[in-house]
Amino acid sequence: MTDRSLTLMAVHAHPDDEATSTGGVLARYAAEGVTTVLVTCTDGGCGDGPGGIKPGDPGHDPKAVVEMRRAELAASCEALKVTHLETLDYGDSGMMGWATNEAPGAFWNTPVAEAADRLAELIRRYRPDVVVTYDENGFYGHPDHIQAHRITMAAVEQTGIPAKVYWTTVPRSAFQQFGTVMKEIGVEFPEPEATDEMPALGLPDDEITTWVDTSGYGGQKFASLAAHASQAENIFFLRLGQERFTELMGMETFVRVRDTTGAATPEDDLFAGLR
Ligand SMILES: [Zn+2]
Question: Is the whole model's pTM more than 0.85, yes or no?
Fold first, then answer.
């Protein structure tokens, strides 16, 4: 089509989010010669600190956390061979309802238009063909994930540049298998159920438009996640070992929400219709 290489941009909330839901596509498309741009919106300062100190506990020093997580993010990008890493460096807002939601500089406390302008500038610079982010609930309700969704959709609207936009999702059929494996390694994983505050996680399989096989890149995805081992929430995945992890996480799924190519769905490639 053109001589310019295809470009994928993934917009994530925290250092480590790139690994779980898009580590496979970032690694796979980089290996295929696609330019990959990771935008990480926050500094991850509400994560676990060095030595596993939890946010809010004595000795939790957000500055030390930020520094550690910056180095982890660089290592993860190295593992996934991300071409360009861009960090917006907003303050991590913490979980919904935490005082950090309202802190000066917190991502959740930043007007959508302001952050969207910065992202739009990056979209104009890199001209991604495909942009990936979260759904309107940020997949599981974290304020920074919701905000990442909002600024991405506003920046896409403003620039009109990406030919395709996707939200990450998980097929409901995968949850049962996921629950069984988690039990094996001693992690309680309740079946997702919708509540008043929280829509159910994931989507029925027939609403998923895009299934990308990334099982050939399980080693890189595992290494990317391992780079963030300081974050307790991720360690349980690592307990699976690389082989089981790839079995469980080797298919990345998306719902296509913007498309100018007319590629038929279901599709198995984020760049279907663009090659
Ligand atoms: Zn996150």
Answer: yes
